[in-house]
Design goal:
The complex is a heterodimer of chains A (about 325) and B (about 300). Chain A has about 325 residues and is mainly alpha-helical. In chain A, about 70% of the residues lie in helices and about 0% in strands. Chain B has a domain of about 220 residues: MetI-like (MetI-like fold). Classes of the chains: A mainly alpha (about 325), B mainly alpha (about 300). The interface between A and B is large, with 129 and 130 residues.
Chain lengths: ~325, ~300
């Protein structure tokens, strides 16, 4: 991390020493052009890595692109809406699998976002007042968020092992809750394993954001409420939670998008092919593209996913912004 | 994190660090002692949550000190003997040092580039009125919602085709990965820094402009030093993003450029799964980021308070 600062100073050298004293006319021109010049690197990179690929992705989704055309993708034959038809033909295996994966992802996302938000908010509100050990606890709570995804998830893989894992040891050997050790990373249980890991990893982000949001609530509000005789629970319900509304609006949206698009967690947890019960859409598309080398269909699925997310995000913002100014978004 | 090289030479140090730079103690709720029900609810909730968070951390640490027989048989809470053997073996079972270097180079470069670019962009948005400003911020932010999988395939094609056409090897190289990763943290970094720069009083850099500094000089001498906590927060975020990314690393690296994210899975594809070594390796790769994050977390909270959460 120590390497982050020096380059910031580098551009000093690129400004000619006399630049500040250049004549008025060119100075004026520079002032108009300067903001664009400053934005240029960010803009170019966003174009190269996000927007151009997105456009290409949309084009590819109308082509029949297999590994034979990798060297020159523009030569791949057009198929019109063929890839889309294949993706949404819910009577055929491909469409059926995609629909199943979609429902799994929706259920997983709703569960994970709700739990992350709930735990994060509760922890932040409970830790609003100072008490002994608060700083330590806060640092501990941020550890799952700070851990690299693969390190955290691989630990959970170990804990979920059938023969030598902690989960079966506790549930079966120590508490005798199950008749025999369960499989957690294959079969129906894998959904719950995935949800647990996702919540463990995700809730500290909600905690962090809500904690920051709490600092913007003026203390006088609480004092006034206390003078009026409101207890702690009432203060939380009447002041804290309503004040967090704008923070929550963004937080829940971000949690939703990240969870819905999450690839890292299922990929490290299950490997290249996820069990059916935990077949999240990102891994599903990855598999459809890179394992079967069928980029056209994979792209069509990605575009459908993006459309879905656009609609949901738009709808969410319209609904939650009702009564609030749109510019707050 | 020493102060930036430019700070000592900056002529007038900013008179006072503006508002939200330091973490103020959060507003106390009731001046009265909270009731029993609240205290007990808090105690129970936080204890259960701490246990939930701690168990995997404990498993990681304790298992990394176990001999192989402890991790292949039934799970043991307490190691039968403590050994540091796994920490020695991890370096020879897979080329961990190489993966480590690759991750360090990729994440470090992506962080530096991302922070510099975000500083310039955020300064433009924060200090200038120009046509297309709103379009820019909305577009940049909305790229956050794209599923990574959507542009993985086309980016893969672009890199392969650029490589075929010009000979610049982006696919499989660290450069391609750096380029990709830095754009991941860019939108959030710009967004957060805009808020942060907004909270640095304009008088400061306007005074510098009057004194004959160019706008860039004013940015580097005045605004950047005053916004260090925000910049640190953004750097931490960018580094963590690049250090932990799996999807693009799994497609866009080869044997020579493999990063930790992919390399760590090498321990389990061998005939035997050395869980003690996997845990030791996970711990080793986590320590730099977790330590850095915990040391700098106050900045992140301060940065979020000033920038993102408004």
């Amino acid at each position: 991390m120590t390497t982050t600062t020096p380059p910031v100073t580098e551009p000093v050298g690129t400004v000619p020493p006399g630049a500040a004293r250049t004549p008025r006319r060119s100075g004026r021109l520079r002032r108009i052009g300067l903001p664009y010049l400053l934005l240029l690197p960010a803009l170019l990179l966003e174009l190269l890595v996000h927007l151009v690929p997105m456009v290409i992705g949309i084009v590819v989704s109308f082509k029949e692109l297999t590994q034979f055309y990798l060297r020159d993708w523009s030569a791949a034959p057009w198929t019109g809406f063929g890839n889309y038809k294949l993706s949404v033909d819910f009577d055929a295996p491909v469409g059926q699998a995609l629909l199943h994966s979609f429902f799994v992802t929706v259920a997983f996302t709703l569960g994970s976002v709700a739990l992350c938000w709930l735990i994060g908010t509760a922890a932040a509100v409970f830790m609003q007042d100072t008490f002994k050990g608060r700083g330590l606890l806060r640092a501990l709570f941020l550890v799952p968020y700070a851990l690299p995804v693969y390190a955290a998830v691989i630990t959970w893989v170990f804990m979920f092992q059938h023969d030598n894992g902690l989960v079966n040891h506790v549930l079966h050997d120590q508490l005798h809750l199950t008749d025999k050790p369960s499989f957690w990373l294959i079969g129906d249980n894998s959904f719950w394993a995935l949800l647990t890991v996702s919540v463990w990893k995700g809730w500290p982000f909600a905690f962090l954001i809500v904690m920051a949001g709490l600092q913007n609530i003026p203390g006088e509000l609480y004092e006034a409420a206390a003078l009026d005789g409101a207890g702690v629970w009432q203060q939380i319900r009447r002041i804290t939670l309503p004040s967090l509304r704008p923070v929550n609006q963004v937080l829940i949206l971000v949690l939703f998008l990240w969870t819905f698009n999450d690839f890292n967690t299922p990929y490290v947890l299950f490997g290249k092919s996820a069990p059916e019960a935990a077949d999240l859409i990102s891994v599903h598309i990855y598999q459809a593209s890179f394992v079967t080398w069928n980029f056209g269909t994979g792209s069509a699925m990605s575009v459908l996913l993006l459309l879905f997310l656009l609609v949901v995000t738009g709808g969410y913002l319209v609904v939650t912004s009702r009564g609030r100014r749109a510019s707050d978004v | 994190m020493s102060s930036p090289a430019s700070a000592p030479t900056a002529a007038p140090a900013p008179p006072s660090a503006p508002g939200p730079r330091t973490v103020t103690p959060p507003p106390r709720r009731s001046p009265l002692a909270p009731p029993r029900s609240f205290l007990w609810a808090r105690r129970i909730f936080l204890t259960v949550l701490a246990a939930f968070v701690l168990v995997p951390v404990y498993v990681m640490i304790s298992s990394s000190l176990k001999p192989p027989q402890d991790v292949s048989g039934e799970f043991r809470w307490i190691p039968s003997v403590l050994t540091i053997r796994p920490y020695i073996d991890i370096w020879s079972t897979v080329p961990l040092a190489k993966y480590f270097m690759n991750s360090l180079i990729v994440a470090g470069s992506a962080t530096v580039c991302s922070v510099v670019i975000a500083v310039f962009a955020a300064y433009a948005v924060s200090r200038y009125e120009f046509r297309g400003k709103r379009v820019f911020t909305v577009t940049v932010l909305s790229t956050q919602m794209f599923p990574g999988i959507l542009f993985l395939l086309p980016l893969f094609l672009i890199y392969v085709n650029i490589g075929n056409a010009t000979g610049i090897a982006l696919f499989g190289s660290r450069g391609g990965l750096i380029l990709t990763y830095l754009t991941f943290s860019l939108p959030f970094s710009i967004w957060m820094l805009i808020g942060y720069f907004d909270s640095v009083p304009r008088d400061l850099d306007e005074a510098a402009l009057v004194d004959g500094c160019g706008p860039l000089k004013a940015l580097i001498r005045i605004v950047v030093p005053a916004a260090i906590p925000g910049i640190v927060a953004v750097a931490v975020y960018a580094f963590m993003t690049a250090w932990g990314e799996v999807l693009f690393a799994s497609v866009m690296t080869n044997d020579a450029t493999r990063t930790l994210a992919v390399g760590l899975q090498g321990y389990s594809t061998l005939n035997d799964v050395y869980w003690n070594q996997i845990m030791a390796a996970s711990l080793v790769v986590s320590v730099p980021v977790v330590a850095g994050f915990l040391l700098l977390q106050r900045y992140l909270v301060a940065g979020l308070t000033a920038g993102a959460v408004k």
